[in-house]
Design the sequence.
């Protein structure tokens, strides 16, 4: 068993080296639940000093991994000391710029707020949002980028998987027309931290064209 | 009882010590109700009130004046432990009542204790549930050397969680000691202790690392034995407002920081009517068989019968515990 200090940030947060910012955030939140001062589950397990050290390590890991520049630097150091293979880093989503707020603030933020901050600073997503119309495939690529499973969207929005898949696949014939579709689109957009009306109107515009 | 179960009780029983902190976490409540469920599934089941000094299982089960008890075995009024076994109103269910008098047993000699533990492990039952006394007294911890398994019960309150961590740590350290006493490991254990004096006491997880460094093969064998332990956690008296994930998180902390595997086998809901059934001296599961809490108890049962465990290999291999 490795002691915590010997773990790299990915191991510490129990995530893969190619985890998306949202996954980093979720992992941090989960760990925070385990170790924070008032956590019932770990009550009395650690002396206060040790608890502070663990929380400091988590914060450090979180702020490093949430910022593209520091994460790239950290990854390079892992590659250099042989912990990380280079190929894992050949992933398409490395050019995102997310400004990490201080982790203490972050833990108070909801996941949705965090998604919004990723959306607003992600060049790829911004580029899609700048277009006049949005296709289902583009919505899906945004969702993939954010690392949100479709099941989660279904759970949050209460829209059936069948319809969500039809929306992403641009299979208009499978979606009930009119007011329903508009509602589904808005819910989908909102769930992903996007502007709901924009998503709905641009998708519908493309559908009509 | 079917023939499969009949043949099963001829071999070594599954022994489950049930431990928890002081303050009534529900050890006795679980022992009785899980015992009844096991008996009803056709398993020949023995409950032992191992709460030395302050037994009360007999009362909860509705037997105010048990004819025989552990005292008789300790005081040699009877020659075999079997003679202290009482029949219960539930088919397949049996009880050994706890020692009546604190003086009988609270500080009884090591030799006597060993004799009792050995006698327990030789009994012919499918399942033996040991309702332990609260806390981390030696006499409590020693019951965990009887098998490779154990159930820990806590309630979702800081005091109880503090107690359960203390108990789990003590039990784990006791189990490690037991394994290290097996002849073939003694030499290695001595070397490790010389290198890192406090490890056994304070950081069992470092001890294993040290053992593996000195002798990868033997260290690996010790790790395998330790990982074969079947420790389970039950969170009892869970109310609607409580976080249902607390048990999972506790197990995660233990696994990460003690290097010990423990499985969360369920929340058991708080039910006001438990008090009423205790007062009426009739088992809860018989009276409220379809309540949520009863369902939860079935879940716990599943967690217990789902895996396998036998009397500890370490106990069989070593003469001294
Ligand atoms: N799930 C439950 N819902 C409501 N009350 C419960 C529940 N479990 C146990 N209790 C109550 O908690 C009290 C303590 O239970 P129990 O006697 O089983 O604890 P214990 O761990 O054996 O305590 P001790 O260490 O004193 O032997 C009892 O009064 C019982 O009525
Ligand atoms: Mg009790």
Sequence:
């Amino acid at each position: 068993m490795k002691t915590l200090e010997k773990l790299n940030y990915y191991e510490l947060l129990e995530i893969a080296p190619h985890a998306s910012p949202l996954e980093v955030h979720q992992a941090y939140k989960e760990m925070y639940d385990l170790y924070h001062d008032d956590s019932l589950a770990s009550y009395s397990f650690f002396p206060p000093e040790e608890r502070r050290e663990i929380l400091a390590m988590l914060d450090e890991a979180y702020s490093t991994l949430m910022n593209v520049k520091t994460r790239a630097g950290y990854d390079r150091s892992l590659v250099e000391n042989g912990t990380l293979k280079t190929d894992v880093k050949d992933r398409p989503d490395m050019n995102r710029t997310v400004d990490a707020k201080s982790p203490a603030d972050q833990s108070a933020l909801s996941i949705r707020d965090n998604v919004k901050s990723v959306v607003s600073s992600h060049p790829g997503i911004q580029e899609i949002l700048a277009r006049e119309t949005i296709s289902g495939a583009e919505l899906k690529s945004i969702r993939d980028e954010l690392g949100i499973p479709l099941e989660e969207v279904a759970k949050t929005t209460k829209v059936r998987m069948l319809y969500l898949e039809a929306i992403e696949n641009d299979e208009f014939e499978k979606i009930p027309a009119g007011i329903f579709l508009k509602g589904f689109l808005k819910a989908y957009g909102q769930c992903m931290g996007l502007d709901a009306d924009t998503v709905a109107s641009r998708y519908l515009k493309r559908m009509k064209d | 009882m079917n023939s499969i179960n009949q043949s099963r009780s001829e071999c070594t029983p599954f022994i489950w010590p049930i431990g928890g902190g002081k303050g009534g976490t529900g050890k006795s409540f679980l022992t009785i109700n899980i015992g009844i469920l096991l008996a009803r599934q056709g398993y020949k089941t023995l409950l032992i009130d191992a709460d030395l000094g302050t037994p009360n299982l007999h009362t909860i089960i509705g037997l105010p004046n048990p004819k025989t008890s552990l005292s008789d075995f300790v005081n040699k009024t009877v020659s075999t432990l079997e003679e202290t076994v009482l029949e219960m109103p539930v088919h397949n269910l049996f009880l050994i009542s706890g020692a009546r008098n604190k003086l009988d047993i609270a500080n009884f000699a090591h030799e006597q204790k060993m004799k009792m533990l050995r006698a327990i492990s030789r009994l012919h039952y499918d399942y033996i549930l040991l309702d332990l006394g609260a806390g981390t007294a030696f006499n409590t911890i020693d019951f965990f050397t009887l098998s490779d398994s154990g159930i820990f019960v806590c309630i979702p309150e800081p005091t109880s969680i503090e107690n359960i961590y203390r108990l789990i740590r003590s039990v784990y350290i006791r189990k490690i000691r037991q394994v290290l006493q097996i002849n073939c490991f003694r030499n290695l254990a001595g070397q490790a202790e010389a290198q890192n004096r406090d490890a056994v006491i304070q950081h069992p997880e470092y001890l294993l690392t040290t053992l593996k460094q000195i002798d990868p093969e033997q260290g690996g064998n010790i790790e395998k034995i330790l990982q074969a332990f079947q420790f389970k956690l039950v969170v009892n008296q869970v109310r609607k407002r409580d976080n249902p994930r607390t048990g999972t998180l506790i197990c995660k902390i233990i696994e990460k920081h003690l290097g010990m595997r423990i499985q969360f086998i369920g929340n058991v809901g708080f039910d006001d009517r438990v008090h009423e059934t205790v007062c009426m001296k009739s088992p809860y599961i018989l009276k409220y068989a379809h309540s949520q809490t009863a369902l939860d108890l079935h879940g716990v049962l599943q967690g217990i019968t789902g895996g396998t465990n036998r009397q500890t290999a370490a106990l069989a291999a070593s003469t001294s515990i």
Notes: Residues B 20, 22, 24-29, 51, 134, 236-237, 268, 270-271, 274-275, 278, 293 surround adenosine-5'-triphosphate (ligand 1) (CB under 6 Å). The longest helix of chain B spans residues 158-180. The first strand of chain B starts at residue 14 and ends at 20.
